[in-house]
Amino acid sequence: MFEAIPIINYSYPLPDERIAKFPLDKRDQSKLLVMRNGLITNSNFYKLSEFIPENSLFIFNNTRVIKARLVFNKPGGARIEIFCLNEESHGYGYAVWKCYVGNSKKWKNQELTIQHADHLPALNAVRESTDGDTHLIRLSWDDSSLLFSEILELYGKVPLPPYLNREPIAEDTVRYQTIYALYNGSVAAPTAGLHFTDIVFEDLLQKKCTLDYITLHVGAGTFKPVTVGNALEHSMHEEKIILHLDTLLRLIQNLQQTIVSVGTTSMRSLESIYWLGYQLLTGNALSLEKNGWFSIEQWEPYNTKGNISSADALTAVYDYMKSRSLKEISGYTRIMIVPGYTFRIVKALITNFHQPQSTLLLLVAAFTGNDWKKAYDFALENNYRFLSYGDSCLFFLTDSR
Hints:
Blueprint: E1 31-36, E2 39-44, E3 57-61, E4 63-65, E5 69-73, E6 79-91, E7 94-102, E8 112-114, E9 123-131, E10 134-141, H1 148-155, H2 170-175, E11 183-186, H3 198-206, E12 210-217, E13 239-244, H4 245-253, E14 259-262, H5 264-282, H6 286-291, E15 294-296, H7 310-323, E16 328-333, E17 348-352, H8 359-368, H9 371-381, E18 392-396
Parallel strand pairs: 1-18, 3-12, 3-14, 4-11, 14-17, 15-16
Antiparallel strand pairs: 1-2, 5-6, 6-7, 7-10, 8-9, 9-10, 12-13, 13-16, 17-18
Helix pairs in contact: 4-7, 5-7
């Protein structure tokens, strides 16, 4: 393990006017910065296929963003905002979620209610407990035929990142979602995927690329800044991964090709699957054996001994699933990828520009070495748009980083 990673070394000036507050009219019209072996090419996202080797395997995160923000107004006028993070339990007409609560001090023990304008069932909220900065909230409604996902569609708001500093509009319902989003569960979009269109997909297929999917439900912790001087003291958030057997087989079959991770969430998922294989081969998959789901801890990759090949690790996961007739496997990861990490699966990364002093920027720096500074300086000098609705990068892994 390393002695220290000064977070100040992973900062850069980001004026507010460089943060993209709204998406472009067309998804694939965003700029694309391509970096290979330290050399930068300035392009546009609709030209992505020009830079991708034939027979590459793309892995997308097909999570779907839920309308996780619920706003309640107390009779006295105070505004209480409940931000849904993780479901703890549910039943007919109710769901219990772990949440953040905005303006929490103004909410005593009373029940809060949102009444829908169209005389649909009212939504009620009761706080059951508090643990640090999160709260356990019981949400209930009178019509037991409605699922909580449907309730969120009625009452919730798109959970835009806090740095956009604006209320969501109707356009965000579509644009803060990838065109291939499938499984509800994220409270933030996997933003690298926001640039993809059907035309971009067609161009990649013409290059004989394979497109496949993994699911990581993005948590609000993705926006949590590193507030300690030494990044090694940062506590990484936990997120859920779901992997299908067919995708795993495709990964094994394409390890000699260029595997492209679409976004940092796909990257964390793929690298976590390697470490699951490592656990299985070293007899340390304790959570999987006990609970039926795997768990990758924050610093686990940096505290292991011995080198297991990517093929052996992924094959171990495949054999485990086949022996138990599992079509999918799920688990949780807290993996924190920082400079010094050795990548096992991914050879190219598509990602947006990230906040200074963030865990996402640390991941990019781990993948590119100090070349991240060159890329970000170039983007600032060439009027690139930053963060969730901003422009994109395509980085290739090199041995000389």
